[in-house]
Structure formats: C-alpha cells, structure tokens
C-alpha cells in the first residue's frame, strides 16, 4: 500500500532522485550507490508524469506544485497494489492534473486500486467510480458516482444544503488604503494596483505567474528592488516580514506546514505568536490570562474544532489549521490581510465558514487581497480582480467585467489590461 500525503513529505536539501529512492538506493556490486541507474530510473518516473525537469535538481528549488508531482512519482516507484492519494491536486496546475489523471487511469487498467481523497467535486466526478463520505470522523454513506449529482454529494458531506457556495458581500468599498506603484522584485516586474478599505481584491493567474512572489515582496518576505508602496497616504518600506507586520500588512501563506504554522506548538501558541507584544508587560513577561482570553475569543469566533487551546496544531484538520493561521493574522490588528490560497486542502463546509469570515472582515473595513488558483473562488468572492502573467500585471477587471474566460485569457497573456476609468 502506497500513500501520497496531503502535506509534503520531502527533504528539500536532497535531489529529486534521492527523495524518490530514499532508503531504497540502487547499489552496484561494490556496495556503493549506483547514481547513474538511480537518476535514470527517477527520470523515467518523471517522464511518466510528463515532467521535464532533471532528477538531479534539488527538491527545495522546486515550486510546491512540482514538489507534489515528485511525491506522486515517489509513490509510483513502489509499484503498490493499492495507492492512497490525499488531496493530490491541491498544488497542481490543470495540465499537471491531467497528467496525474492519465497515470491513474493507466494504473486502474493494470488492476491497481486507487483511494482518491479530495474535496474537489469536479475531480470526484471525473476520475472516481464510487464515493464514500465521512463527516466528523463518522461514515455517512457510500454511493456509485454515476448515481449522484454535485449538490447531493455536497449535502452528504456537510450535513446540510449549501445554497450559496460563494457568499459575496455587496458593500461599496471606502477610500484607497493601499497603493502599489511599479513594484519590482524576484519574479515581479512593474506591478501597479490599488486596494480600498473594505474591499476584496482577487489575484488570479497560472501557477508560476508571480502571484505569491508579488505578495511576498509587498509583505517583505522577498526583497523589493524598486517601486513604492503607500499605506493610508504614507509610503512604507518592508524589508522583512517584521516590517510588514509593523506597518499593518499580514500575509497568510499558501504553505501552512512550511511558512504558516509551527506544527509542534499548541493552538494557543500558534495563534498568539505574532501578537505577543499585545500581551507583554514592560519587563517582557506575558499576561497569560489576557492571552488565553484572546485565543478563546478567536477560537469561538472562527469555530475552531479543537479539544483545547493546548492541543498541538499538527493534530487538527487542514480546515481548522487554516482558521488558526488566519486568526493569528487578525490578532495583530492589521490594515491589509493577504490570503494566499486560503481554502487549499479545506473541505467544503470549512470553506463556507472561511468565506463568511472573510465577508465579516470586509464589513469591518479590513482591506483583503485574495490569491487563489480556483477561478470560481476569485470570481465569487472578489470586488475587483487583477491577473498576473509571467511576473507582470496581465489584466485588471471589475466584478461585472470578470468571467472565467476573460481571466484565463489575461492569465495566458492574450488580453490587455482593461481601462477602469
């Protein structure tokens, strides 16, 4: 039995081939590692997935999507009779997903069994024969996929009908809060946009287009080479994430495990980690009662399902981990909240709760940047949308102008920026 975990289980400092065959290295008759054979076998596995990079490349130099494909290649190397895939397409492009589905169909034709765990309805109906639904740790039902439609399956998953999947709050935004002019940095060239108070600005684009890089340059996690950022009329310089936080800019990473949470620490420690200054006395000691009260309030507000605030965050579900990550950002009392793939690896019920929280933040006047690979999510939740293409701004659209076709055209560079004047 082989398994592809939702959270990446790779060693960044090793090559792709070393990760794939870790503990199962090829050896020659002298007992030494046969690097030539190992790299050749790894390259064959990558070719099966239509991947064009060399297996001698370090895993740490790959994008999250490419790392996910390496995880898939690693499991294929075991030639298991049963393969469990947990959210395997979370970080994949449409092309990579099609390559994975082609391999799944090939494995199925060879008589292998696939357990495909996913919250993405489209994928379940495209690739699966049968579906089993679990909710809150309990078996709910098992059905043939052909006997279901999407609405019925969602109802089984969440225990209720989901009338409005993307509950957009129709409220006019206020004055301009954030102004970005000709921002440049690693993977970002001359990007200009504005963000208003109480506005949700969607950021779309293909994987590798520079969406995350733009947010990290804005926040201070990547160096800014030129351009300016103005917040509430005052120019700000963010040379580090600490500068971003100090200026009221919070970034919630797309990669919870690597950048967003400390998995060995508790829910309480993770939630209050960046806001400890609000609970500190002059001498530096913590006001623990104030910290516990604030964490308790956010657990209640965000409906975080945890036995206690002392529970290790790594033991929570993906949806509850994401709620804690967002709550930690809100604890710092930001002016601008950047959400990078906020619903990745989150079930449909938790997604709806996160969307409702986003609308609540918007109603309270918070300025929000929503970065997402899911077009319906960007279209459904945003007041205005910008599209990144190869590090540049490929388009900017009002909610009324934006359609999936328009955004995709801008994402591949076939549509010029729409004048909003």
Automatic annotation (TrEMBL):
Boundaries of every ABC transporter domain copy: 164-415
Stored Pfam families: ABC_tran
Coiled-coil features, chain-numbered ranges: none
Residue ranges crossing the lipid bilayer per the database entry: none
Keyword Translocase found: yes
GO MF assignments: ATP binding; ATP hydrolysis activity
Protein name (record): Ribose ABC transporter ATP-binding protein RbsA
């Amino acid at each position: 039995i082989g398994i592809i975990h939702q959270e990446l289980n790779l060693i960044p400092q090793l090559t792709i081939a070393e990760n794939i065959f870790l503990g199962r290295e090829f050896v020659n008759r002298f007992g030494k590692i046969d690097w030539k054979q190992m790299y050749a076998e790894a390259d064959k596995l990558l070719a099966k997935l239509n991947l064009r990079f060399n297996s001698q490349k370090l895993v740490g130099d790959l994008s999250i999507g490419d790392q996910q494909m390496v995880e898939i290649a690693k499991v294929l190397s075991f030639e298991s009779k049963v393969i469990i895939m947990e959210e395997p397409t979370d970080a994949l492009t449409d092309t990579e997903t099609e390559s994975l589905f082609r391999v799944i169909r090939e494995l199925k034709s060879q008589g292998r069994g696939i357990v495909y765990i996913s919250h993405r309805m489209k994928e379940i109906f495209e690739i699966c024969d049968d579906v089993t639904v679990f909710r809150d740790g309990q078996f709910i039902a098992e059905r043939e996929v052909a006997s279901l439609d999407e609405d019925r399956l969602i109802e089984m998953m969440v225990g209720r009908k989901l009338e409005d999947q993307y509950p957009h709050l129709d409220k006019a935004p206020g004055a301009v809060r954030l102004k970005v002019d000709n921002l440049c940095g690693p993977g970002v060239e001359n990007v200009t946009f504005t963000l208003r108070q109480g506005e949700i600005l969607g950021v779309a684009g293909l994987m590798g287009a520079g969406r995350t890089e733009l947010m990290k340059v804005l926040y201070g996690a990547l160096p800014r080479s030129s351009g300016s950022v103005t917040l509430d009329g005052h120019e700000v310089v963010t040379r580090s994430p600490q500068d971003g936080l100090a200026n009221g800019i919070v970034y919630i990473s797309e990669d919870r495990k690597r950048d967003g949470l400390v998995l060995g620490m508790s829910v309480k420690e993770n939630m209050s980690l960046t806001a400890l200054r609000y609970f500190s006395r002059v001498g530096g000691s913590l006001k623990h009662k104030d910290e516990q009260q604030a964490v308790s309030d956010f657990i209640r507000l965000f409906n975080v399902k945890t036995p206690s605030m002392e529970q290790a965050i790594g033991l929570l579900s993906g949806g509850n981990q994401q709620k804690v990550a967002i709550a930690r950002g809100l604890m710092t009392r930001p002016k601008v909240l950047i959400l990078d793939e906020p619903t990745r690896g989150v079930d449909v019920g938790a997604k709806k709760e996160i969307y409702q929280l986003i609308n609540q933040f918007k109603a309270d006047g918070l300025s929000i940047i929503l970065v997402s690979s899911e077009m319906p999510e960007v279209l459904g939740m945003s007041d205005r949308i910008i599209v990144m293409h190869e590090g540049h701004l490929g388009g900017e659209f009002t909610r009324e102008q934006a359609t999936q076709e328009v955004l995709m055209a801008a994402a591949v560079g076939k549509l010029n920026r729409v004048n909003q004047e």
